[in-house]
Model the fold of this input.
Amino acid sequence: MSMKNDTHRYGAVSRALHWGIAVLVIAAIVFVEIHSLFPKGSEPREAVKLVHTQLGLLIFGLIWLRLAWRMANPPPAITPPPRAWEAHLATLMHVAFYVTLLALPVLGVAMMQAGGKPLTFFGMPLPLFLAEDKALGKTLKEVHETIGNVVIWMIAFHAAASFWHHFVKRGDTLGRMLPPWLANFGRSAR
Done:
């Protein structure tokens, strides 16, 4: 198993970062969505929100690691090659993912600091970047939630596009990111 990408497949590090970040993003979404099941100010609600925050900060660091790894390990070619508009749309989607997944934690930190809430990352206090400003905190919360909802739609579109390429176009787009033993999942030989 190669750690680095080759001309046909993503390497183990790229796959681990992709799927690891995907699981963490979905977990962050689940935790933020279930917090409303608990009464305001309750210990379970605060615990769920804390998990959401910690996941967001972890995702922030992993996205930077993934970007660095991607720069050093270009993606493998897609077979069959996509049309120009498909390639442009895929590039736009990837850029949008990176931008939103970096912006969300920054907005979350800013929102909490403006709201006067102390913030730690696995117990380590984060430096204070913003003074308390409740109105700004409320605005940042709305922006954070809106971008979070956009990410949910982006995930759905990304998954649908990968399945469409895999099952309909019968390309290797999804297979390049799956472990070798799963690369032809759900496809019978024609």
